[in-house]
Amino acid sequence: MNHSLNDSSNNLSSDSPNSSLENSLENIAVSVRHLDYYYGQGDLRKQVLYDINLELPKGQIVIMTGPSGSGKTTLLTLIGALRFLQEGSLNVLGQELVGLSKSELVEVRRNIGFIFQGHNLFDSLTASQNVEMAVEVLKDWGNKRQRATEMLSQVGLAERVDYKPKALSGGQKQRVAIARALVNQPSLILADEPTAALDKQSGRDVVTLMQTLAKDQGCTILMVTHDNRILDVADRIVNLVDGHLESDQNFTTFNQTHDPKALV
Q1: For residues 237 and 222, what is the distance between their CA atoms, to the nearest angstrom?
Q2: What does the alpha-carbon distance between residue 224 and residue 193 come to, in Å, rounded to a whole number?
Q3: Which range of residues forms the domain containing residue 178?
Q4: Does residue 48 form part of some domain?
Q5: CA of residue 250 relative to chain centroid, distance
Q6: Which of 190, 180, 242, 178 has its CA nearest to residue 219?
Q7: What is the per-residue pLDDT across 125-149, written as a single tens digit (0 to 9) for each?
Q8: Does residue 198 lie within any of the structural domains?
Q9: In angstroms, rounded to a whole number, what is the distance separating the alpha carbons of residues 228 and 213?
Q10: 10-24, 73-87, 178-192 — which is least confidently predicted?
Q11: Cα separation of 52 and 88, whole Å?
Q12: Helix, strand or coil for residue 124?
């Protein structure tokens, strides 16, 4: 069977680092096969993802780009076990998601760190307490405060650990959300515009921290972004256009064939 991503239906670039799709599953964090997805029912049913084939090896940082409305966030939430799969196959961290119950999907999500466009912080909790909640998910109560404050320090919020969200700037709130995603050293991080609310230096500091986690912990990172300042951290850049996986390239090739200033 030919597992190449150079399928004409996906029109993928021939230089794709992922074109063979012959890696052993034990070295693969995410494997997507012939995935289709639809919104709505009956006459209102609309397809938003078309025959997506993609593999994310462990330890890689993969950036997903593409115009707004191209299906990037939908694909991210499917990989994150936040939606039920409709058609195709999706294996995440060794677990096939097809046919899983809600409770089984919850178990898959315990090993995933999420960074959403919205901060999704609890206004009544301090920065530390928001991060501690992620530690509690793994039933690690003993040193949750220490772990939370250490991670907040790593994202530059050592002096803000006891501040509530209303006392934080937009960029600081985003860094709390990033700390919450990283604190458990998850096997997979899914990030939707993680640097959108950050200035250039803060954004670079955050992705550098994510790079370190990927290298030291073998963590896989899939990041949706329009931020052309951070494309160089990626091992691969996949481009999604109108629900189709248009290309899968390394940074150098992507930079030669796309206009990084047009990632909107």
Answers
A1: 10
A2: 6
A3: 119-185
A4: no
A5: 17
A6: 190
A7: 999 999 999 888 777 677 899 999 9
A8: no
A9: 21
A10: 10-24
A11: 9
A12: coil
pLDDT digit string (tens) for 181-201?
A: 989 889 999 999 888 878 888
SS3 22: coil
CB atoms within 10 A of CB 186: 23
Q: In the block, which residue shows the tokens 């629900």?
A: 243
Three state DSSP letters for 126-154: CHHHHHHHHHHHCCCCCCHHHHHHHHHHH
User: Length of the chain, please?
Assistant: 264
Q: What number of other Cβ atoms are within 10 A of residue 255's Cβ?
A: 15
Stated pTM of the model: 0.82
Could you tell me if residue 142 is inside a domain?
Answer: yes
Give me the sheet containing 95-96, strands edge to edge: 46-57, 28-39, 87-92, 95-96
- What's the rounded Cα separation, in Å, for the pair 21 and 17? 9
Mean pLDDT of all residues belonging to the chain: 85
Q: Which amino acid is residue 7, in one-letter code?
A: D
Q: How far apart are CA 166 and CA 181, in angstroms?
A: 20
Is 31 contained in some domain? no
The tokens for 155 are: 């994202």
What is the identity of the amino acid at 144? Answer: K
CA distance 32 to 264: 25
Structure tokens at 116: 């959403």
CA distance 131 to 183: 7
Q: Which helix (H) or strand (E) segment is 257 a member of?
A: helix 251-257
Q: Give the number of domains in the chain.
A: 1
Nearest-angstrom CA–CA distance, 249 and 204: 22
* Sign of the alpha-carbon dihedral angle for 254, 219, 116, 84: positive
Q: Any idea of the CA torsion for 68, 71, 208, 255, to the nearest 10 degrees?
A: -70
CA distance 194 to 224: 8
Say how many C-beta atoms besides its own lie within 10 A of residue 16's C-beta. 22
